[in-house]
Amino acid sequence: MILTVSLTGAVSAAEVTGHVREIYNETSGSYTTLEGALPVRNATVTIIHNGSVLNETRTAPDGSYRINFNDTFPAVVQIKYSSYRTASYTINGSCTINHTFMPDIAIISSVPEKGRILKSMENRRIIYHDMWDPSSSANDWIMEYVNFAYLDMAMPGTGWGDSWYPYLLRSPANQRNMIAAAFGYPTDTDSDHGGARG
């Protein structure tokens, strides 16, 4: 009697776990702190290797997820939710990845109409920061995390409605030269004669 044993290559499994949160409070339309970020339900978590999807899952009501896949590295963990920029993490083994979504585009201005229009777009990547609204200063810290900022009629460094300025200086937007600015200095043809001449 001849006994033949066939060994198949066992594929070991890898696992990524974590929690997904966001700082935007959908109920109040305001922002929390990082520590008070809210759980995100139904965020999509995808494992990708060489452009192929290995597995995909969605977060539970408490923002938690657990995803298993064949032990193939390096792999990319992508986390998507709402209109936020997709988060991507490269991994080389089983791990825990916690992610908090927050706006990464800041429009810093003092025109309430612009703020209303931007909010009506319901794009969570964008935060409208009204520099003259005293309640906005509670969100100054978010400027430290933005990837792009547009300063509209803003005068950073002057002390005029610029409590957000030190945070923006530490931002990825500043480090990557991704800050644009517009300021309309009046001329002689304007009805506002308090402006510059010429």
TrEMBL record:
<dbReference type="InterPro" id="IPR008969">
    <property type="entry name" value="CarboxyPept-like_regulatory"/>
</dbReference>
<protein>
    <recommendedName>
        <fullName>Carboxypeptidase regulatory-like domain-containing protein</fullName>
    </recommendedName>
</protein>
